Amino acid sequence: MDDRTIQENLAVIEAHFQGEAANEIYRILPHYTDDVVWESPARGLTLHGKQAAAENYRQMFGGMENIEFTRLRRFATADRVVDDSIVTFTLVNGGVANAPLPVGSLVELRLVHIFEMRDHKIARESVYETWRAISQSAAEPVPAAGAAPRPGGERRDGDHGAGADHRDGRAGG
Predict the structure, then answer these.
(1) Does the N-terminal or the C-terminal CB of the chain have fewer CB atoms within 10 Å?
(2) What are the b/e assignments for 85-104, b being 16+ CB within 10 Å?
(3) Is the entire prediction scored with pTM above 0.85?
(4) What is the fold, at CATH topology level, of the domain defined by 3-142?
């Protein structure tokens, strides 16, 4: 592998995420090839070209507030960069295109990006998303499927507790 190419590709992706964090789309676009493909299979989106990607970013960031980003890991080969992150935000305004949660939700979004690189630019950005509502209002937490009971034994729909078989809800043994 070409270590220099890998380091240059990692630098491109770092600059890409810095542009996202600042909501400065003009800083993101130079890192794409003219024929970039941006896709989010979970939301049924496939976009072609820089301008379609830019419009998606404008709408997406317009639908989020209080964004917090945590990078878990990032690694690269000579032609790909993989980034695994968690983003939390409140879904606002018109939301995010094809989002599986309603406007007003506090969201935890696990993101795995696979960037296909060509000549130190992003030729394809595949974004794999797992959406989870932390709450739908500040006062009402939403448990993850299979979450443990709350202190004091309080349960909500979706809580199965210890010993449950999460495939069918029967007690395990």
Answers:
(1) C
(2) bebbbbbeeebbeebebeee
(3) no
(4) Nuclear Transport Factor 2; Chain: A, (3.10.450)
